[in-house]
Amino acid sequence: MKILILNAGSSSQKSCLYEITTPISTLVSQPLWEGKINWSQDQNQAEITVKTATGARLQKTIIGDSQQIQFTYLLSTLTDGTTKVIDDLSAIDVVGHRVVHGGQDYREAVIITEEVKQAIARLCNLAPAHNPAALAGIEAMEKTLPHIPQVAVFDTGFHSTLPDAAAIYPIPYDLVQQGIRRYGFHGISHQYCAHRAAEILDRELLSLRLITCHLGNGCSLAAIKNGCSIDTTMGFTPLDGLMMGSRSGAVDPGMLIYLLQQYNYSSQELDNLLNKASGLYGISGISSDLRKVIAAKEQGNQRAQLAWDIYVHRLRAGIGAMLASLGGLDVLVFTAGVGEKSAGIRQAACEAFGFLGLKIDLEKNQQQPIDIDIATLDSTVRVLVITTQEDWAIAQQCCTMLQEAEG
Asked: CB–CB of 360/163 below 8 Å?
């Protein structure tokens, strides 16, 4: 079964093609083909990169064409040129999409219908950087492959098990009844990493208390018990919780009232302030990329140092909150760009929890670990660095859904 995965972001479109044989293996399969479009800030220029499992590579810059034409070109690399892996797009059996927000109605992966599209569209105001892009990808594939089934896998789905005490805000209850609650995000990644951690440790997932740290440009933590998410840091939108690349994370809501009343901020100005001008970028004044902030910190830049200090403080505080929800900890997992690549962040986070008996092997931590335990032998908590495989997890769910639909 050939499965095309589309993972749409606000400024990029990542795609990959998997071939899955049945029964579905738990081992991660490498994609036959991977393609990515990065759009410039004005959306007028697209940087397209493609690679295949056999080592073929392509890079191309497209200027001026519409995003639909750019996306069509990306798909053409599946069937043409040095990156060809299939004879025709009709060889694709199903298309899977990562959709960030599924609201309360969509807690499991679903085959996309007009009703599902309308629900994704309604939720665009809760995930404005992601849901519109996912919807555009769905509609683009409808035009390209109109008879191929499409599946939506929701980032919010894994967190549908949050208990009410963790999910419901202390606001007037009629607002709760209107759907204002904690949804949580990065669920596909948190779920995959929990299962992968159990595999690495050769333990039953149901027996483990885990905190998974998804630290990328967006950041969130999840407390996982009995295989279920019981707490998480992101909330009604992906803006809540930890300090992120350009997002503020949690702030005093009174501050927003103050900015509205005293400085006449508009809702759009507040949205831009909190989503695009805050976080590492806002404090450092340098970049939303932690690597660049670290480089400036090491050169003595005080704002970069402050950005690092705040990031670490809030990460430790978030882990502490998840720890309290779990009532103990067996496994701490780091994943995503920062979690997988920043030895300094992993060390700084772990140092605060020495009182638990958590100890990391400093040498292992520095060796760019992938899917291994970096805790010392005598550590009471296992510490894993896991390469998150969201696209593979989506592909597995698509395969399962298609098999069920075919009876």
From this structure: no
